[in-house]
């Protein structure tokens, strides 16, 4: 505990050289203008950190690339990538469709490397 702050969770951050991002065609990956945030929230095992939250993304929607894999006209997996930095802001696959290669298709070329570790901290008042 530092200055009364407690670590709530540890986050690992990965980054891709955006010039090397080439989706693989195992599953059809589509680039869309935005995703239905209400639908994709159900894919999460945990909430994104505040800087990657829906509220933070919604403010600057146009600065991200949105990639989805649709099955039966419904999003089964998605990725949101920061156009400027190449950071993966959000990434998830519907629980029923995990283990089928959807995530690999979205991430495509696996040039993602560990970039930095972060702590999400809480100050209890």
Index terms:
mainly beta; 6 strands; two-stranded antiparallel sheet; 3 helices; 125 residues
Structure description:
By secondary structure, this protein is mainly β. A hairpin with a 5-residue loop joins strand 4 (74-82) and strand 5. The strands form two sheets. A four-stranded antiparallel beta sheet has the order 2-3-4-5. A two-stranded antiparallel ribbon has the order 1-6. The chain contains three helices and six strands, in the order E-E-H-H-E-E-E-H-E.
Summarize the topology.
Blueprint lengths: L4 E11 L13 E4 L4 H4 L13 H6 L4 E8 L2 E9 L5 E6 L8 H6 L5 E11 L2
Antiparallel strand pairs: 1-6, 2-3, 3-4, 4-5
Oligomeric category: single chain
Low-confidence stretches: none
The number of distinct helices, counting runs of at least 4 residues, comes to: 3
- Class derived from helix and strand content: mainly beta
Distance between the termini: 14 Å
- How many beta strands in the DSSP annotation? 6
Average residue pLDDT: 82
Report the portion of residues in β strands: 35-45%
- Give helix and strand order, one letter per element, not per position: EEHHEEEHE
Q: Tell the overall outline.
A: globular
Largest sheet data: 4 strands, antiparallel
- Neighbour order of strands in the largest sheet: 2-3-4-5
Radius of gyration: 15 Å
Helical fraction equals 10-25%
């Amino acid at each position: 505990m530092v200055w009364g702050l407690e670590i709530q969770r540890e986050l690992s951050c990965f980054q891709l050289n955006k010039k090397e991002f080439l989706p693989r065609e195992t599953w059809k990956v589509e680039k869309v203008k935005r995703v239905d945030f209400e639908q994709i929230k159900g894919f999460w095992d945990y909430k994104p950190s505040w800087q990657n939250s829906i509220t933070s993304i919604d403010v600057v929607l146009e600065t991200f690339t949105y990639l989805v894999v649709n099955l039966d006209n419904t999003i089964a997996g998605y990725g949101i990538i920061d156009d400027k930095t190449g950071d993966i802001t959000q990434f998830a696959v519907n629980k029923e469709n995990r283990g089928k290669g959807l995530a690999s298709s979205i991430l495509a070329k696996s040039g993602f490397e560990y970039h930095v570790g972060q702590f999400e901290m809480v100050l209890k008042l």
